Amino acid sequence: MFCFICFSLILGQKWRNIGELPHPVYDAASVVCGERILTFGGKDTDDKDTNYVQSYHTRTQDSCSISTLPYPCKKIITTKLSEDIYVTAIESGESKHIFKLTSDFGLTDAGFEFSGNDNILGMSHSEGNLVALTENPEYPKHAGSVMKVNPETSNTNELKIPNTCGLFSKPVHVVHRLFVDKRFLYHTYFCNT
Questions:
Q1: What contacts 24+ positions apart, CB below 8 Å, involve 101-107?
Q2: Domain end among 111, 131, 165
Q3: How many CB atoms lie within 10 A of CB 58?
Q4: pLDDT of residue 172
């Protein structure tokens, strides 16, 4: 069965199980919502896509299935913008649907979409906008452009990533925004050789 695991690098330098989900899945998208960790979709033990929305409460250590996505998806990306949680569901035909999580953990249409047919490699947020890194159609798994959408106005902007000196951006595996306490930051200096 799939277990949530917690890595405590600073305190214990060990992995430990902290709970289990009612439906065993792997490769699920996740997001933190208050004291809950929510998971969306994932693959089951038969390697089939699922549409479960599951919750693990970090304080009470309870877990449950709270909702379902409208359909199983091959790829799901979750993004938290302020207090809103957005779920981008990408079907096998590369069509993209963006949902917004409601207060009762249901899903509703977000009311906007990213233009273009490019594959989304990852999503984050910046200055009140959702930001998606898209794939270069000529070079799979390489960055192509950055799409920015304002959820309130549905305005979309695209920034092409330039091809400098015949080189394209290296393959991208994940896009994630995080905060690190400045006590744990180190300075790294790079030089051109």
A1: 101/33, 101/38, 105/38, 105/53, 105/55, 105/66, 105/67, 106/67, 107/53, 107/67, 107/69, 107/70
A2: 111
A3: 15
A4: 53
Domain identity same for 128 and 104? no
pLDDT digits (tens, 9 = 90+) for 58-116: 889 899 999 888 888 888 888 888 888 888 887 655 567 888 988 888 888 888 877 66
Residue 7 — pLDDT band, cuts 50, 70, 90? very low
The CA distance from 54 to 26, in Å, is: 12
Domain of residue 141: give its range.
115-175
* Residue 190 domain flag: no
